[in-house]
Amino acid sequence: MRAAAPILRLAGIRKSYGAVEALKGIDLAVDAGEVVAVCGDNGAGKSTLIRVAAGALEPSAGAVEFEGEPIALGSPLDALRAGIATIYQDLALAPRLTIWQNVFIGAELKNRLGLLDKRRMRVNAARYLARLRIELSDVNRAVERLSGGQRQAVAIARALHWEARLVIMDEPTAALGVTESARVLDLIRSLRDGGTAVVLISHNMADIVAVATRVAVLKTGVKIYDAPLGDLTADDLAHMIMTGTPPAPRA
Amino acid sequence: MSQRVEHTLACYGTAIAAAAIFVLFAVAAPNFIHISNLLEILKDSSFLAILGLGFSLSFVTAELDLSFANICSLAAVVTGGLIHEEVSPWLAVLAGLVTGIAGGALNGFLVTRLKIPSLIATLGTASAANGLAFAETGGVAFVGRWDPTFLGVARGSVLGIPNLVLWTAVAAALVQFLLTATRLGMRMIFVGEADEAARLAGVKVRWMKFMGLSLSGLTAGFVAVLLTAHLNSAAPNMAGDFLLTSIAAVLVGMTMFQPGRVNVPGTLLGAFMIGMLGNGLVLLGAPYYVQDILIGVILVASVGLSAATLKKAAFGL
Amino acid sequence: MKKIVCSMTILGALTLAAPAHAFTLGIIAFQMSSETHARCANAAADEAKKKSWTVEVLNSGGSLPTHAAQIEDLIQKKVDALIICMGKPVETDSQLADAQKAGIPVVTAVAGASPHTLFDVEVNEFQNGAVAAAYLLSKIDYRGNILEERFEQNVATRERDKVLDAVLSENQAVKVIGVHTMARTKTWQQDVRNGMHALILQNKGNVQGIWASFDGQAYIIDDILQAQGMKKGDVVLVSLDGGPETYRRIKDPNSLLSATVAIPFEQIGQTAVDAVDKIVVHHVPKQQLASGPYILLNATLVDASNVDTMMKP
Questions:
Q1: What pTM value is reported for the model?
Q2: Running along chain B, 317 residues long, what does each successive block of 10 average in pLDDT?
Q3: For domain C125-263, which architecture applies?
Q4: Could you state, in order of their start, the residue ranges of all structural domains in chain C?
Q5: Which residues face A17 on adjacent strands?
Q6: Do C90 and B17 touch (CB under 8 A)?
Q7: Cβ contacts of B294 on chain C, cutoff 8 Å
Q8: Distance CA C245, CA B4 (A)
């Protein structure tokens, strides 16, 4: 049973690069409190799909609705303003700049004079990181001097700052160690519990099984499966991605 | 070498070298350390310092402005021409500033709208500005014994400090303020560091680059006013020599304080170093070509250290 | 580290080279890469060295801000006198006033007069232009077609060109059928070659005389004419400045360069030094050297008839 309108609804999304059709009419709806895992092999169209949802790529055809209203996502800024934050695989950070600059870029805090409120940004950046249980004593450090997990945390902190209604995460744990991965999964759960919708792109079936509430599987630009996680196992998912056929119903 | 020593050398090596040269000149060159001579160096380096600050505003967004010297000459001719016609000096100054910002905005338009690489676009603007300056003057400089109020903008002094030095301080403070205290500055820097990341974070990348190039033009217009007043004249290529030396000041500046990054104190010290070399070598009685050779050496050495940033701005790599 | 050592070595070497106090003369040439500026400045420097003075020669590289800064630098150095070759006295008005205030006498060469300088050693370029223009017209019998190569960005050439216009206005039988004005100062040779080559091809066989506003242009035009297979006398080519290369061409049977007006650049430099010597060292009153703001020197028309005397050392 679905609530009134989903947070995000993609309908009939197509995207062509010249002769190559990366998406061949995809429908996807995400409700509040859902963690929708989008999986598929390389070239299945996952990245293209999330770039459309993030406003980074214009679809060749199809419609996007946000909280029941049609919306044009002409730029990443449109998406951010609507409440869609995206955390990219390459993290989209400026390595030589500081943690706080990377967290607040695009939505800087200003003081009464209209100038940058650096103190507040430093304090809040540390606070966001603390929520992610990432201990970084000095938010003036350059991002290039952080570990992969710490960088992931900086990118997620930016989404927290935007107070996104929907967070799209592209392979959030790919570069992380076991402990840091667990923390990111915890974070995804806490986002979900707070009513934020999460779209998770991942190759890691164990992660998906651990946090997803629903799974969508893409293969060569077509959605072949979309259902609640239920009792699907990591092996079931891997099988489906490889063969392109849903698992037989269990007895 | 311990890590701390290495870090100090990376941040302050060039500054230490500058201090060493300063001490050497002070010991060896007669009258070098005299206060009137030191003020003279500051005055002489003021033009390249301010132009360098302007150049760094485009450079910080990873665009290269190679037109600022010619835009400066054109703005000087516009200002000088109006002063020569004895219109109000205020109007003449305004016209110079407008010429500068118009040239910069044209660069911004070519780079961000027509997507012409700044290396090429600004060279084109430079050539056009040069042509316009010659068209305006027919090659003959505007020279006169002009309104002393106007000349006083650059020639006067306040409490013994030459106005040119004060203007440099004002320009440096404004640029520093823009880059460190305002949202625009933070976004310009971010765009220069990672433009795709900035775009994905909702920053209007093209607008930031447009602003950087426009402000570089505005600065060139400002220097044009100072130069016209300082020299009591306006010639169609009067600022041409500042292209190389101002860029050298910025690149030398990038070797200190925040290595590899454009920074205001570095640009100021870089400009002072170049001014000091010119002055000190004259006082030492060195042949005139030594100065050119040394500036060449400094330029190549500093580019070696800031190569990555330069490459990105020039070729988008 | 290496950078510091390097700069120390260079500066150390310069320090050792700095001599003890003698009469110090500062010489600034506005644009050393221009042969005429260099000839004037180098002759002045040689003359001063003959007097065992310490000489410091600076090159402003054609840049006004640099020029102004160098005047200030030499004031700070407290030179005993200053000679400026082809400078810009009006533009550097405040710097020259500073020199006057500091008690440093300034003599300029081919620069124009200033209230802050002793005087300007000068040739009259209007007069020179008139001599050259009259020569050109007389050699084509005051009728026919000519081409002009002009240069607007220099006072001397501009004055010469203006006088040519005046002379032509009195000779209606001579028609100017092509004009090229040199514009790009940094690649001027190429500019002249392109412009004149086109004009010569376009008007081949129809041109009696060619005017060049200075000898450097005339060399290039001469080469184009020779490459077209023309012989001496086919076209009368006249310009101004003088110098060994010009004299060689005037004498060369293959060259089409007919005449020049030789400006005594060396003598200008020497005269400037001589004036400094008399006034500053020997305290001769200024009025004895010149009654006005100028010391005027004479230029010599040089063609095949007198080129041999000019070529003697």
A1: 0.81
A2: 72 83 89 89 94 96 96 95 90 96 97 94 94 82 81 89 95 97 96 91 94 97 95 87 90 84 93 90 83 78 66 65
A3: 3-Layer(aba) Sandwich (3.40)
A4: 23-117+265-298, 125-263
A5: A20
A6: no
A7: 10
A8: 63
